[in-house]
Amino acid sequence: MSDFNFDSRRSPVYARGGMVATSQPLAVSAGLEILRQGGSAADAAIATAAALNVTEPTSTGLGGDCFALYYEAASGQVTALNGSGRAPAGLTLARLQREGLGEALPPYHPYTITVPGACAGWCDLLARYGRLPLGQVLAPAIRLAEEGYPVAPVTAYFWKRSEERLRAAPNGLELTIEGRAPRAGELFRNPGLARSLRLIAEGGKAAYYQGPIAEALAAVVQSAGGCLSTADLAAHTSTWEIPISVPYRGLRVWECPPNGQGLAALLALNILQGFDLAELPPLSAPRLHLLIEAMRLAFADTRWYVADPATNPAPLAQLLSEEYAAERRKRIDPHRATLNQRLGTPTTSSDTVYLCTVDEQGNACSFINSNYMGFGTGIVPRGWGFTLQNRGHNFSLDPHHPNALAPGKRPYHTIIPGMITADCSDPLSPEKPSAISHPLYAIRHMLYAPFGVMGGFMQPQGHMQVVVGLADDGLDPQQALDRPRFCIDDGTAGGAVSLEEGIPEETIAGLAAMGHPVQVVKGYARALFGRGQIIRREAETGVLCGGSDPRADGCAMGVG
């Protein structure tokens, strides 16, 4: 397969009656179909997510996890759904030590399989914000799986890269054509996944976590040497949470709280508040240096503080305070990279698909669903058409670390949806107070944009960079996504920096002179920089403006 370039130009997409943006055009069509049938932003999001399970199994599936942020127009509030799973009850650090795995867990080992949370997340989002029956929402995805679809070019490339894993994994051949990946434009059918989706359409989440799917899932994991059980699956629950946020240039940026890494994006933006970025050319070395250094400080904190809040709650109010941001800002040398940043001590008082939807009423959903490393482990429950994730690879095996592996615990999660609202101070009517007791829920917020950038540890870096493009530089959604990006490769404070082709040579040289270990990334390897989607809503007119990342196969499309 020839190398891939991104030379084509995309215009922003405008519409009034609703919009869907994601990395596969056929999945966008599925979401639009549901909007036209009277579905909400939540209905369209799950229809799109389910279709992505079919058309982009290289990145997502029923064997993975999901997170969502939902903006409800009637209340002006943002809520967060955590659809991530937990470690099996039988998986302990002592068990890993006995089996010689106490230092490092191989990335595709069956012990990395946590309970898949996606199906429950879909159903729980629809139970709260959906308008249509589950069967109607899943119908487009079922049709695609049964009738087949032509595989898109970028998806075909990453499918090809995973051939060996699928051939080696139990039942992985179910997601091949006679042992090979489908080629671009080739028709692929997935009757097993259609069967799974039909069963869920009829029986809801219980059809996944109890019964034949659960039995097949537990059986294949245990036969491969893992310990996930039907009891682990039956015990799974999603959680609704209060999102975290910071103000930024007159806007408010929202993320899901830990165990997701959205905290990193907010920490970096809070630090950047103290710099006048608009005075620095967007792709200049001085501007990118500040962004990189803010991100290094953010990763130094999140690699310690992001863990399952049920066992290790982070001091979020302190970490996101202006005072803490000011202290961390002092650690940035404007002329020199600092590769040994340490976590701060605030004063006490993963391959993925991303999508966003907005409906005609102005409700918005920011949604992300992932297997983690491509097809995850590559392991397929026999006959059900999806692979199982490897999220447990992100657990620390240091027993003293907040993110240490333990039974029933959620791991550090890379996948993060984002939401932006206009910073508004209009109080809610005393006659209609918020159902949630929290200072931010005493205010009605105005939708600005659901947004996201998928791609492992790139995600908070992508969030920060597109927010800066929108808020500091006045870019439209497509321009913000088109702009070349940087990525601290391993998501650590001292990691090397990849720079996307298109960043000026003088900037690359300038960053290297400042002490940043840099490399230029081109072609298909530019997937490292993630694949984003943004739908912005104009406050006065309600007109939607959408953008879709040119690094993927997808698009943004609207209704009316």
Short synopsis of the structure:
With about 550 residues, the protein is an alpha+beta fold. It is about 30% helix and about 15% strand.
Q: What coarse outline follows from CA principal-axis ratios?
A: globular
Q: What percent of residues are in strands?
A: 15-25%
From the alpha carbons, calculate the radius of gyration and give it in angstroms: 22 Å
* Count of folded domains: 1
- Which structural class is indicated by helix and strand composition? alpha+beta
Largest sheet: 7 strands, antiparallel
Helix content: 25-40%
Runs in which pLDDT lies below 50 for 5 or more consecutive residues are none
Features:
alpha+beta; 7-stranded antiparallel beta sheet; globular; 560 residues; 17% strand
Explain how this protein is built:
- Strand 10 (352-359) and strand 11 form a beta hairpin.
- The model has no long low-confidence stretch (mean pLDDT 92).
- This protein has 18 helices and 19 strands.
- The longest helix is centred in the middle third of the chain and has 21 residues, at 285-305.
- 32% of the residues lie in helices and 17% in strands.
- The protein has helices spanning 25-36, 41-55, 93-98, 118-129, 134-147, 153-161, 163-168, 191-203, 206-209, 212-223, 230-234, 262-272, 285-305, 316-319, 322-329, 458-471, 477-482, 505-513; strands spanning 13-15, 18-22, 65-72, 77-83, 149-150, 187-188, 239-241, 244-248, 251-255, 352-359, 364-370, 418-422, 446-454, 486-488, 497-500, 518-521, 531-537, 544-548, 555-558.
- The chain is globular and about 60 Å long.
- The protein has a seven-stranded antiparallel β-sheet with strand order 1-18-17-13-12-9-8. It has a seven-stranded antiparallel β-sheet with strand order 7-4-3-11-10-2-19, covered by helices on one side. A three-stranded mixed β-sheet has the order 14-15-16.
- With 560 residues, the chain is of the alpha+beta class.
